[in-house]
Amino acid sequence: MNIVSNPGTIRPVTIEKISRRRVLKSLGIAGGLVLSAPLLSRQAIAAYATGAGLMPHGTIVDPRVFVAIATDGTVTILAHRSEMGTGVRTSLPMIVADEMEADWSRVQVRQAPGDEVKFGNQDTDGSRSTRHYLIPMRQIGASARAMLEAAAAQRWNVPVTEVKASNHEVVHAASGRRIGYGDLAVDAAAQPVPAIGGLSLKDPRDFRYMGKGKVGIVDLRGITTGTARYGQDVRLPGMKFAVIARPPVVGGKLVSFDAKQALQVSGVEQVIEVQGWPWPSKFQPLGGVAVIARNTGAAIQGREALKIVWDDGANADHDSVNYRSELENATRQPGKVVRDDGDIEAALKAADKVVVGEYYLPHFAHASMETPVATADVSHGKAEIWAPVQSPGGTREDVAKTLGIPAEDVTVNVTLLGGGFGRKSKCDFALEAALLSRAVGAPVKLTWTREDDIRHDFLHTVSAERIEAGLDKNGKVIAWRHRSAAPTILSTFVAGAGYEAPFELGMGLVDLPLQIANIRCETPEIKAHNRIGWFRSVSNIPRAFAVQSMIAELAHATGRDQKDMLLELIGEPRVVKLNDSVKDFWNYGEPLDSYPIDAGRLRGVVEWVADKGGWGRTVPKGHGLGIAAHRSFVSYVATIVEVAVGAKGELRVERVDTAIDCGTFVNPERIQSQLEGAAIMGLSLAKHGEITFKNGRVQQGNFDDYPVVRIDEAPRITNVHIMPAPADKPPSGVGEPGVPPFAPALINAIFNATGKRIRSLPIGQQLAI
Amino acid sequence: MITLNINGEAHGWDGDPGLPLLWFLRDEAGLTGTKFGCGQALCGACTVLIDGEAARSCITAVSDVAGRKVTTIEGLHPTGDHAVQKAWREVNVPQCGFCQSGQIMQAVALLTQNPKPSQDDIRTAMAGNICRCGCYQRIENAVHLASTGV
């Protein structure tokens, strides 16, 4: 824990004024301080095992790194994860504050720069923040509390067991004495940091903020007054504004360009070539031609006036219509076996009836409201970046590598992210900005237009999913063969990668939690022809769609209720054990002991949402109810959708009920908002979302041809039901697990409303009459 | 030289008169509360008030607003406590928050024209403003709250 003697130095600094030195100073790391922060790090010891320690740089539990107390009592807590709308910038500091008995109204939150050695892993992705950091943040808060109590006891010369921290002061009950945190700041900082093993965490009954949902997000006022600073809002003295024309085909490159007309556009200052890397090369820039101007509008206009000749390269013939056929054909023949239970061939042969479902989900673009954007100041061999990145640590390393300078000479300042959804875990735009700043010799803000964003995204994969289910003569499912064909995210990292990685297979394919005697999962080799990347929920979206659609198809085939069929197939409450046929099973990076595949919990959310969501209720003519459930990011979610389909096939979502079991939780109000949003994102991808290629080029470019759901199409009401859990039940993901069940629940509802089974997304005009 | 009236202050511009107002606000005047989302009037992130009416600054030329009053989120209320802003906070509307300046300005324009909008009125009037995080239910609730008194 640090002390800042003058709270003025930790007043929030506007982004445009921040320099590296000021950042360090404002965090109490340099100069004029009672205590200088130590460099030694302490690895967290969790009360239950998580995969946090396996992440690069693990977790750091040290109040001196995360907490500073000013002599006026202001407590500053660092947020080291990126805020993209999940509420993490509020939730993690709130855990520290609660555990250290700080009064939230006297807490200010500061964003940490990218430095994983100091702060531990900062990669805000995979719905990991709360599950990896709940216990470490509690330990940090408890350490700070213990140091404050020790300082008070010393001052009063009483045993530390007689004092107790409570709401921003330490109290000695026997004498009635009390002293505020500000008055203790200097002495507390001089206390030794207690051993983690000896810390006593608060009794959950004494939580003030955790689990209550009473705390608004820390940026609420800034957001509503236009003063919250996103990556797009960074301003530096002497800054130039840039856009880049990139090769329209992945793997293509620049041949030549003519900048004459562009340079005549008012406000345009320079046109320069940008270095590109061959595909694939992780997140390295695509290259192209940059227009540098005095404002972004001029840069965009200048770019329109460029004349460029591209070499389209090997993917020039990439075509989504043909590619779809390739994927679908691949699922109609054997692929690599990635899970094998029982004897699938014999079971399918013995089946009384085989139901086959072929499902198709296209590429989606992330389309975060804030397009990729970054500001860089590269000079004197050092680089400072301001960017809305999900992984500031990774960004720092990649900037260093790209510029050929040591990581210690790169500072990555994390702004608010105007949406992320996995797009901003790729730092290509920050690398581009760094290259431009170095070339121009001035700070440069690089903005991606919406067309850049849609056309050069690391897209959500496209997939064909084929499930064959064999039923015996009693209608019991005895065989299940699922073939999944999709280009892998690995293709963005390794040339020619054609087989999905364990982290993709583990998202709803090989971890199928159904109780069926004969199960086989197969994946064929599929080559990518464009950039594939993580998109919120990742492979769970197509897998949940296929599995949950098929379950409803089986319900129909056997004259059963969708929910009853779902529960029957999930089977009895049990921990699902995968046999040796599943190699390198990836459980979202978590140990199976703490985070098993728990069929009982999946049943639990289904039964609960059925109860809360009124499953089986009578609905008007033209309406239908549909249900789906899915385990992802080690959480369990079930969703019921009530849809109304009009005479011309127009869709209206009347009501959504979503139940989540995410273990113990911190900020239920933000869980609610995440699941409300998941329904909207699920509806967007079900109804509209599709990115296609022709001649290697993305055919969409903006919200006219890549529509997303608007308020007039939004569900009339979305109800969120959060499963209560004791404090020692390991927390699990929230940001992503709400999305996968939505589309199948909607499609199953449409089937009940109309009798029409949709197997290919987006719905588009499929219901039009 | 074009003179603009933005939040009651005069700003001069002698550059390209066709420059979209959005980029003048953000890059020339430093008023970054107004956001770039699409550049084609498809998402509403850049919504400002021009003489009290909602307009998409990304397709409005600087020359078009000469002599008219432009209000951005920064100028909506001196302390940031317009009824719509307060309602937004009361309902905890934002997730990432990026689109919210535009949403708020659109809501202000709606309530000026229609002080007691129905649910359908709100959904119709706000349909030009995209929120990718999906805060629509709360936007609807916040507009309703602002119309009934915070």
Topology:
The complex is a heterodimer of chains A (769) and B (150).
Chain A: E1 2-4, H1 20-26, H2 63-66, E2 67-70, E3 75-79, H3 88-99, E4 107-111, H4 116-119, H5 129-156, E5 163-166, E6 169-172, E7 177-180, H6 181-190, H7 220-225, E8 240-245, E9 253-258, H8 260-263, E10 268-274, E11 288-293, H9 296-304, E12 307-311, H10 320-330, E13 336-341, H11 344-350, E14 353-361, E15 373-379, E16 382-387, H12 392-403, E17 410-414, H13 428-440, E18 444-447, H14 450-455, E19 463-471, E20 477-485, H15 502-505, E21 518-523, H16 540-557, H17 562-570, H18 599-612, E22 623-632, E23 635-645, E24 651-661, H19 668-687, E25 693-694, E26 697-698, E27 717-722, H20 742-754
Parallel strand pairs in A: 1-2, 3-4, 8-18, 16-17, 20-21, 24-27
Antiparallel strand pairs in A: 2-3, 5-6, 6-7, 8-11, 9-12, 10-11, 13-21, 14-19, 15-16, 15-18, 19-20, 22-23, 23-24, 25-26
Chain B: E1 2-6, E2 9-13, H1 21-28, E3 47-50, E4 53-56, E5 69-71, H2 83-91, H3 100-113, H4 119-125, H5 136-148
Parallel strand pairs in B: 1-5
Antiparallel strand pairs in B: 1-2, 3-4, 3-5
Helix pairs in contact in B: 2-5
